[in-house]
Amino acid sequence: MKGHVAGALRWRDLPAALWHWLQRGSASGGDFRAAFARSLGVDADEVRLFGAGRAALHAFTASLDLPRGAEVLLPGYTCVVVPNVFMHLGLEVRYVDIPPDDFNPTAEALSAAITPATRLVVVPHNFGFVTEGLDALMARHPHVVFVEDAAHAWGGTDRAGRRAGTLGHAAFFSFEFSKPLTTGTGGALVIHDAALRERFAQRLPGLHAPSRGVVLRQLLTLCWHRLTMSLPRAALQTLTAALRMPSRMLGLVAKTPDSEINGDSQPDYLAGLHPLSAALGLVQARRFEAIHALRRSQAADYDALLTNLPGWRRPSAASASASASASPSNMPSVGPVLLRYPLLLPDTATRDAAIRDLEVVGIVGGTWFDDVVHPRGSRRFCYAEGDCPNGERAARTVLNLPLGQHARLSPSQRAAVRAIAERHGGLDDSGVFGVREAGARHAGSGAARASSP
Question: Is the predicted pLDDT of residue 106 greater than 70, yes or no?
């Protein structure tokens, strides 16, 4: 099944990373740091590696020594690990809603939400769509630090061609299993502002390397994810059923504990990136141009499949790649590099019915983010129901289509995607979401019922 994990990982990357680590040892971290910086077009001195993206955000925020009562603005469509950082640091957060035709708050909405108490704003690039207007925001609000959440956006640029992660004062990236570049878990901090970089260097926390057991679990989990991208569905289901119980009993699966998601425990914010994990990141970072071109090509293919289609509504920014060639060698170097291809469907029932139909043809449809503070059921630190209605609506109706090394659709699957979209369409014929939601919801529910056995 074509899923959303290990999207750049090849089997030969594993022995290549092991060989590099055996040759270079702890220097593998510096090698990866330099290669990742090169992929962003920045100096290696601007990059620091961590055991997770949330650890990078935590370390940077802690270095600011924000005063009591300082406020942090977050997007009203985010992952729980982001607000949990500020909860653990004792800071209050407030959420800014996304518009109905995008997954990121606009620069204008962020600016309007800033108050004298605001000291830090997290600017998201959800799904890889780069938020525009950071220069004007920083000029208008010089007392505020703007941090890019670039966890989804490795390789994407704004309209001027500047790479995500280099637009604000600082940025954090994630190398978790589902990200464009994966080391299992891991992350990077990029500090673009020289004064803040010097301040951070004076307060740099001492990081410790994860244990060999932790790294082994991460590698085993990565291998499992890579295997799921290769096996036929029937074989995968059989193997999953056979291995699920023993793997859990033996603790062989690396995953975020439920207590951390719930906010009842803190992650190890001082965990560094193991040199072997860094070597695995290095072999992917070295081919960043090909990885980014493939994702742009696949997004353009979805654009062509789903344009002028009632009900399956694409974000307004998605049209940026619609006119590009589907050949990776001809893809432009400006614009988003998507982590997943997101759409909004008329309602939850229609979305879920479409996901079931996609699974039949071997395509995993995602529902990520499934809450304003993903995942559903999290504590939603400082969030009250109704604060961000557009974010709540997106969480109810979002559908993600897979991108990456293992998401190359066959001709029959391409035809199936179009047919499924037509089957589960709605009344809206705009092709871009945010129009006539009530009518589309009613029609979409009918479509879902009609397709049910």
Answer: yes
In sequence order, the β-bridge partners of residue 294 are none
Alpha-carbon gap, residue 189 to 291, rounded angstroms: 21
- For residue 145, the SS3 value is strand
β-pairing, 341-344 with 398-401? antiparallel
Alpha-carbon distance of 243 to 253, in angstroms, equals 11
DSSP designation for 427: S
According to the model, what pLDDT value does residue 264 have?
80
The whole-number average pLDDT for the span 122-141 is 97
String of DSSP letters for 50-92? ESSHHHHHHHHHHHT-PPTT-EEEEESSEETHHHHHHHHTT-E
Phi–psi pair at 418, nearest 5 degrees:
-65, -45
Give the tens place of pLDDT for each residue, 346-364. Answer: 999 999 999 999 999 989 9
C-alpha–C-alpha distance, residues 342 and 156, integer Å:
16
Residue 337 CB contacts under 8 Å (≥ 6 apart), including other chains = 128, 153, 154, 155, 156, 180, 292, 295, 296
Residue position matching structure tokens 């962003």: 40
Torsion region of 58: left, alpha or beta (phi above 0 gives left; psi -120 to 50 gives alpha): alpha
Report residue 176 as tokens.
Answer: 């978790």
| Calpha distance 280→268 (Å, rounded) | 21
Give the model's pLDDT for residue 426: 55
CA-CA distance, 82 to 167, in Å (whole number)? 19
Average pLDDT, rounded, for the chain: 87
Residue 170 in 3-state DSSP?
strand
Residue 300 near residue 321, CB atoms below 8 Å: yes
